[in-house]
């Protein structure tokens, strides 16, 4: 830095040099989830957590150079505007995303309640479209369920894993048991994950005694979450798709590896890493991937995803939920 300041034929801004040096070093790690938060990024993050900012209810990840929508949370502005899992975010308010990191993309999508953000999206058909979405306070639906019509098959949908999901799932599970549930469909489609402990709590009610997930840091230190369930109570089918990520993959991976149930649908997203935020000073910070998740069989799903036991595509123009139908047919056979 001193060499540049002494010899550069022009004005040198110390803050810009610092930002550029740290940003370049962090990006050289080659991990889209490891990012430098400059003073502007960090301020936006602080304002958002302070409650003055809203969003549009989408979760995205990075695939190669593309920012891909993992899930548009139901009953939120993004989903209502037609944003779908698999859409690629190519620009925000006219600014191309190719020069942004993950945190910058997120911060540009967030904003004050009532303001509008314009997203340019590339759909699975390769066509570009622009949607205008008004930001608002995001609703985080957690657990809902019922018995499937004319059956004793319970159906529980988890849209996202939040602080209450473990308790909400246990309550809905017990409610369906009182109604005579004899088998269960767990719907994790479009679930982007969320709270790690909530995923562990749900898995602990569905997989037998033994490992659920392990977290391993760069030094090989291993922390394992386990189930104490004596026996799997009911035949189980789990619905997954490309929008199932993170904590949803913890649950799906544990169920598949322990053969506690069968997975139906399409390959999951593949987000199996853990991040921590480290402050550099009062105005800047670095978010770093510090560990990875591993399924009970010791497999890392990061950037890989989980293949379903039974692959079932859901056509865009489907009038029948063929994935749910396949799971229901399987469970009916198990109950015979």
TrEMBL record:
Name of the protein in its database record: Peptidase, S41 family
The keyword Protease appears for this protein: yes
PDZ domain span: 42-116
Domain of life per record: Bacteria
Example GO BP: signal transduction
PANTHER family given in the database record: CARBOXY-TERMINAL PROCESSING PROTEASE CTPA, TAIL-SPECIFIC PROTEASE
Cellular-component GO terms for this entry: outer membrane-bounded periplasmic space
Keywords, in A-Z order: Hydrolase, Protease, Serine protease
Pfam families given in the database record: CtpB_N-like, PDZ_6, Peptidase_S41
Record SUPFAM superfamilies: ClpP/crotonase, PDZ domain-like
Assigned protein family: Belongs to the peptidase S41A family.
EC number in record: 3.4.21.-
The species this protein was found in: Phascolarctobacterium succinatutens YIT 12067
GO molecular function: endopeptidase activity; serine-type peptidase activity
């Amino acid at each position: 830095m001193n060499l540049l300041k002494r010899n550069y034929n022009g004005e040198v801004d110390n803050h810009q040099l610092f930002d550029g040096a740290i940003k370049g070093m962090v990006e050289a790690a080659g991990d889209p989830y490891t990012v430098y938060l400059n003073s502007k990024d960090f301020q936006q993050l602080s304002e958002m957590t302070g409650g003055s900012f809203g969003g549009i209810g989408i979760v995205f990840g990075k695939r190669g150079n593309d920012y891909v929508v993992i899930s548009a949370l139901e009953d939120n502005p993004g989903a209502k505007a037609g944003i779908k899992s698999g859409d690629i975010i190519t620009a925000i308010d006219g600014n191309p995303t190719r020069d942004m990191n993950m945190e910058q993309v997120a911060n540009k999508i967030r904003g004050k309640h009532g303001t509008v953000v314009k997203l340019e999206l590339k759909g699975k058909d390769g066509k570009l479209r622009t949607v205008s979405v008004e930001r608002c306070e995001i609703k985080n639906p957690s657990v809902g369920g019922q018995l499937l019509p004319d059956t004793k098959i319970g159906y529980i949908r988890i849209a996202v894993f939040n602080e209450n999901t473990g308790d909400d799932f246990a309550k809905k599970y017990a409610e369906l048991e009182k109604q005579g549930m004899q088998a269960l469909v767990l719907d994790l489609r479009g679930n982007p994950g969320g709270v790690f402990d909530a995923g562990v709590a749900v898995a602990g009610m569905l997989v037998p005694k033994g490992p659920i997930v392990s977290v391993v840091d760069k030094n090989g230190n291993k922390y394992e979450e386990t189930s104490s369930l004596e026996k799997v109570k009911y035949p189980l089918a789990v619905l997954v798709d490309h929008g199932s990520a993170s904590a949803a993959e913890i649950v799906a991976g544990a169920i598949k590896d322990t053969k506690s149930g069968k997975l139906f649908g399409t390959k999951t997203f593949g987000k199996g890493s853990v991040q921590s935020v480290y402050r550099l000073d009062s105005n800047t910070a670095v978010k770093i991937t510090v560990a990875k998740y591993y399924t009970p069989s010791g497999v890392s799903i990061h950037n890989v995803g989980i293949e379903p036991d039974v692959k079932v595509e859901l056509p865009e123009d489907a009038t029948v939920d063929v994935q749910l139908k396949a799971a229901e047919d399987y469970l009916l056979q198990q109950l015979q």
